[in-house]
Amino acid sequence: MWKAESVSVVLAYPVGRAILLGIAMGLAKRFVHAVFLAMLLGVAALSHAAGDGGTRLSGFLTDGTPFDLVDQRGKVVMVNFWATWCPACRADWPVWQEVYERYQGSDFEMVAVSIDRDKKALDRFLERYTYTVPVVWRFDSREKDGFPAIRKTPTTYFIGRDGQIAGVRLGRISPHRLTETIEALLQP
Question: Among residues of the chain, what percentage have pLDDT more than 90?
Fold first, then answer.
């Protein structure tokens, strides 16, 4: 076991500092690799969990209309998990609306899934802005759908025509990258 005096002696010499820095960098690199591997396995597990039945998501839109992702089979679907309290989400809404309008009537659909716990906050947001993107309120914290718990907002899933997850993006996505992703998925 290292003692404080040992560390002080090691740090007193440039070679000792270099060795400790190398150890720290090696540990940091292993940590980054472990996190990356966990993310890959998580996406793979999510894709596998979807199985042949496709990814599940059903509920009611804020206007009361039933929504079921299964009904969108054959289309490319952007499922965006967001919240009214998320500054990045609020900033991205105009982009989502523009993309929704641009691809409306094509083989593309979009649904914004609010993870707000407070339905009144969601209602106030939707009353204040004139967005027409369909919105589902995901109020059940047990998440009975085919998506994992959302840890970062916005989180965007791209569902292919086969109903399987084709891609995922954590955080903001540029308008260019968003269009590029949708166009690639719409290719026959």
Answer: 59
